[in-house]
Amino acid sequence: MAEEHKQIDALTGTATTGHEWDGLRELNTPLPRWWLWTFYLTIIWSIGYWVVYPAWPLVTNATQGLFGYHSRAAVVEDINALHAMRGPMMQQLATASTAEIAASPQLIDFARAQGRVAFADNCAPCHGAGGGGAKGYPNLNDDDWLWGGKLADIEQTIRYGVRSGNDKGHQGNMPPFKDVLKPAEMSSVADYVRSLSGLSTEAGVDLKAGQKVFADNCAVCHGDAGKGNREVGAPNLTDKIWLYGSDKATIVQGLQQGRGGVMPVWEGRLSEPAIKALAVYVYGFGGGEK
Amino acid sequence: MTQLEELVRQSEVKAAPPPAPPGGDDIDEIPLYAARRKIYPQSVQGTFRRIKWIVLLVTLGIYYILPFVRWDRGPNAPSQAVLIDFPNRRFYFFFIELWPQEVYYLTGLLILAAIGLFLMNALAGRVWCGYLCPQTVWTDLYMAIERFTEGDRREHMKRESQPWTVETYARKGAKHFLWLMVAWWTGGAWVLYFADAPTLVKDLATGNAPFVAYAWIGILTVTTYTLAGHMREQVCLYMCPWPRIQAALTDEYALNVTYRYDRGEPRMSAKKAEQLKAQGERVGDCVDCLQCVHVCPTGIDIRQGSQLGCIQCGLCIDACNTIMAKLGRPRNLIAYDTDLNIKERLEGRPSTYKPIRWRTALYAAIIAVAGGIMIYTLATRGSEGISVIHDRNPMFVRLSDGSLRNGYTIRIVNKQLKSRDFVIAVDGLPSTLIDFVGLPPRADGRQLVAVGPDQTKEVRILVTDYSNTPPAASTSVLFSLIDVNSGEVAQVRDHFFGPEGK
């Protein structure tokens, strides 16, 4: 038994625990008693907690506590307080036009703050957290707009969507040319389209042939000069911005299968102030047109 | 073994007389928790006691009075010399006004405090603990109150060992009342640093102060009363990390409160010492009167050598010197000295104190450099500031004509008490154009940013590079904020990003 080896350490006068390792003995130094009392105090404190706050789970419910505290109620209270605080500004957002909002120094700051949150919640999955877009999803920071970049245009797009099935939404498809054009025609028109925006073309390609294919098939939407048409959302093919990519394979793929990205309708899903706030916020990315 | 070595060995063993184990002789009945050994520090007079009184008066005086010191900063600015203004996010310290952007001065202050503590330690051990630490200062004050109400050591112990009378309760009641008053006023002074002091005093008195003020007074009252009144030396022994750090930082050249066992040992009564001396035997100067133990606020025996519990306040030196004077023996049997010196003297060499060493020189140099940088930057900082955050998503945007654009969020700081107009310039790109989002140009065509008095303003700007040569993946650009009236300039560097390798 270790008990038998307990002794007083000569140097310090402290008793040992009886444990010994290679001649090293462990001193038995008791913890200070205030430490114990601190521990008891925390227990007493916890009992107070049980009494005043909801604590003990019962079969179908839990003890409610004397304070009547309820985390759900606290959240609802906070939300109501927030709504009450924002109410007047929200009311103004709902009734003012986006142009009026943009002209008002107070409203525009509020709208941007609201829009930032709404964008992160609803738009960022496709357009990116900063509106940078992705392949097939327009970059909202640049100055190229398929359906118009004025405040009212942006609001319209958000409200009714693109190819969304809504009557007021933007319509217009790039049809597939797989069964219309021969592979050689598609190749030559792809090279021609690349040349429109100053991109390199394959050596020995007959751009004249491509131009003819373009005039016959594409110019009806993209315009004779390839400048695009916002009525049908046809992109400007002469600028440096490519929604799906500018390499030849991507262009040929677009010709074969057609293009037609969809943006959903947000009216009804987002509140009136949120839609306007979003329009103002997106406009502020830097691509908005005057 | 030489005679001196034998003496050292003897003194070392004697320096640690084995006390009785806790729980009596039966070592199987050692309690799981040790009760605190109550300490009744005796009053003492002398040099170090006087220094402690002066430090106590000065530090507590500063703490209690400073919030009421006024400092005129002109209209629309607080006139309190030291004010931590949380609602407006300003810190005022006499002529210095700090903004949240300049919180790095706090880092500098912490460096100075830490190295200052190291330097103090390298020169004279734990003088911080003994004289300046708030725990020491308030505990000292509380002990003075205790001696005033309950009597000095002997009287206090005697009264507690006898059955308690009405007088005992009255004295204890008075003590706790005075303790609580000090604690309450300590908490009261604390909150005054966070609002205009005279106004807050009035509000506190009339019950109009914010709840948080009362809460903090309550918290500080409880902690002061508990820590200075009840925890006392236990804070130093169990809670404070500094004794542990200090033990690792100290060296043999640092001064410590030291019992000079080379002179004190062997201990014996004055009478016996006379007899042995007459017989030509060696005697020590320590008469084992325990005065050094009785006056110690942490209850240690300094004759056991330097130890964690010693805060080096020097009260044992005063106590011992009083006894030595009575006995007609030389002073400073306990003194600020080093163990090294004792060994030197034992071996017949003179004792020395080297305050200038590599260690202290290095500490002093760090303090000088850090302090110098702080003073320089404080003296030369402008009344305007600019900080720039580059848009991260997307990093850059290609416009339809192929030029590149980067977005930045710029925060402009105007520390002056009047509204100012600024222009922003960007240098480092071949050809640039700056757009202010949502900020139309003025009638004269200039794009100015107006920032209100003592305010900041955030603007988002778009910088477009129109050069035909696309910039590299990253180009360093310089943002300049220029006050159009005074011409004052603040600058900051950031980057302009483009597609990599194209």
Q: Output mean pLDDT of chain A.
A: 90
The number of helical segments of chain A is 11
* CATH fold node name of the domain at 92-169 and 270-286 in chain A: Cytochrome Bc1 Complex, Chain D, domain 2
- Are there runs of chain B of 5+ residues with pLDDT below 50, and where? 13-18
Major sheet description of chain A:
2 strands, antiparallel
Strand line-up of the largest beta sheet of chain A: 1-2
Oligomer: heterodimer
Give the helix tally of chain B.
17
**How much helical structure, as a percent, in the residues of chain B?**
40-55%
Order of helices and strands of chain A: EEEHHHHHHHHHHH
* CA(first)-CA(last) distance of chain B: 84 Å
Alpha carbon gyration radius of chain A:
35 Å
CATH superfamily of the domain at 92-169 and 270-286 in chain A: Cytochrome c-like domain
Report the top-level CATH class of the domain at 92-169 and 270-286 in chain A.
Mainly Alpha
**Overall strand count of chain B:** 15
Q: What is the number of E strands of chain A?
A: 3
Helix content of chain A: 40-55%
Q: Work out the count of structural domains of chain B.
A: 3
Mean pLDDT of chain B: 88
Transmembrane segments (chain A): 34-52
Main location (chain A): membrane
Organism (chain A): Undibacter mobilis
Domain Cytochrome c (chain A): 110-197, 205-286
Description:
- The complex is a heterodimer of chains A (290) and B (502).
- By secondary structure, chain A is mostly helical.
- Chain A has helices spanning 33-52, 71-95, 98-103, 105-122, 124-127, 151-160, 183-196, 207-217, 219-222, 248-257, 272-283, and strands at 16-21, 24-27, 31-32.
- In chain A, helix 2 (71-95) packs across helix 11 and helix 6 (151-160) packs across helix 11 (272-283).
- Chain A starts with 15 loop residues before the first strand and ends in a 7-residue tail after the last helix.
- The mean pLDDT of chain A is 90.
- Chain B has 3 domains: 39-105 and 124-240, no CATH class; 256-346, no CATH class; 384-497, Immunoglobulin-like (Sandwich).
- Chain B contains 17 helices and 15 strands.
- Chain B has helices spanning 3-14, 47-65, 104-124, 127-132, 134-150, 153-161, 166-192, 197-206, 211-231, 233-239, 242-249, 261-264, 270-278, 291-294, 315-327, 339-346, 358-380, and strands spanning 33-34, 82-85, 90-93, 96-98, 256-259, 334-337, 384-390, 397-398, 404-414, 420-427, 432-436, 449-451, 455-465, 474-483, 489-497.
- With 502 residues, chain B is of the alpha+beta class.
- In chain B, strands 7, 8, 9, 11 and 13 form a 5-stranded antiparallel beta sheet that branches. In chain B, strands 12-10-14-15 form a 4-stranded antiparallel beta sheet, with no helix packed on it.
- The radius of gyration of chain B is 33 Å and the shape is elongated.
- Residues 13-18 of chain B have low confidence and may be disordered.
- At the A-B interface, strand 3 and helix 1 of A face strand 1 and strand 8 of B.
